[in-house]
Amino acid sequence: MNSVPCPSFTTKLLIDGCLVEGEGRAESIHDPSSGKVIAQVREASMEQIEQAIAAAGRAQATWSRTTPQQRSTVLLDIASLIQERASSLARIESLNCGKPLHQALNDDLNAAIDVFRFFAGAVRCQYGQLSAEYVPGYTSMVQRAPLGVVASIAPWNYPLMMAAWKIAPALAAGNTLVFKPSEHTPLSVLELATHLEGMLPAGCLNIVCGGGENVGSLLARHPDIRMISLTGDIVTGQKVLKEAINSLKRTHLELGGKAPVIVCDDADLELVVEGITRHGYYNAGQDCTAACRIYAQSGIHDRLVRRLGDAVSRLRFAQRNDRDNDIGPLISLRQRDRVASFVERALTEPHVERITGAAIPSGSGFFYQPTLLAGCLQSDEIVQREVFGPVVTVTRFDEISQALDWSNDTEYGLASSVWTTNMDKAMHLASRLEYGCTWINSHFMLATEMPHGGLKRSGYGKELSSDSLQDYSVVRHIMARHARLD
User: Fold this and answer.
1) HEC states along 302-315?
2) Could you give the 3-state DSSP secondary structure of residue 61?
3) What are the catalytic residues?
4) pTM exceeds 0.70
5) Which CATH code for domain 260-440?
6) What is the pLDDT of residue 7?
7) Is 177 buried (19+), middle (13-18) or exposed (0-12) by CB count in 10 A?
8) Which of 22, 175, 257, 315 is most buried, judging by how many CB atoms fall within 10 Å of its CB?
9) Neighbouring C-beta atoms of residue 478, cutoff 10 Å
10) 13-256 belongs to which CATH class?
């Protein structure tokens, strides 16, 4: 799919300010668009992970004493670095993830730059409780202090953007980091690391590669890690919690979703079709907030299914000219086969109707046809479980209360949306949906200034916004007794 030439890749880890080859087993890195191996990255050994944690601990003593202004300057420098190298970083991101180059450049890279710039400003504008005499003769002050060494584990669907989400607030709050990219998609972050020399003191940011069973597990249980931040699925989150419990470290978890999309009879049909076509299938549906679970009211249901099916069938993928692609492939053969198996099982149900897609296309790469299934029931597996692929289901409802109950009848609680021209109805539904975010007449729109995170088994803790800074810091009370002057 990618028509740009394949660049050479950096495969070295960043430990204590030095670029070093991993000492563990080699992981093959694929281009999902072709299925070809494009690089080999060696996993960090246990000794190297210990070195990275120790380096972060040493750096913490100095970095935690820097001023907000000093940390802000560093974050702005990193943002400028990403902007200067956006084209090459986007090319690597596109090849490693398979996503269209124009999306990697215009969406992912721009978002990463904005996140670093936001936290550069946010750390200089923190607010808290007023210092005052709450006890006669004593002045109380509240201080937000760094946690210490933070370990972050990022997913493969937005490698560089998720790195920004985790690195920027942690550094801004005065912590040091050991960062683990997904073993499937480390290349853009490793490339960025090669240009950080001189921007950060040695040990402030360490980047180690490897799988969850080895590298991730050690980070989660290590007693010198004060907090672990993970974006992943529920099973991985449960493993991290079990590993973290002995050291009582803080955990910060974003664990997937199954976003309900409530479409009322009075919704703007054209707007709905446009929104779901884009945000149900963006990044090949590999997004925890994807608009994948539609509840359509009876009066609009048939028209929506027909119009949406036409639009989805026109989504372009695997085109020779990368700019012609709307979506890319799935990240791996395993993930494509997993998505295909969900659809195959769903189509064995007599009430499920294939509107479009539902097949593996011919040719190379890990592509799956954009798929729309109608007639789905609330109890169906494909409605209840996260597919994480270009698959959207439609379920008919009659009464608004029914759609609300079905939307909340799930273990997930990350994102949702409501589509109606009646704002009273929209606010009524939004206030009762049990999700970290609810969009009205839109979906998937994020603002760096606003918090992003889930409820229920979608996890806890917030990415983005000043709330994220609070998650990466601890409140301390300092109380000073007044001298007696009489």
Assistant:
1) HHHHHHHHHHHHCC
2) helix
3) 254, 288
4) yes
5) 3.40.309.10
6) 58
7) buried
8) 257
9) 10
10) alpha beta
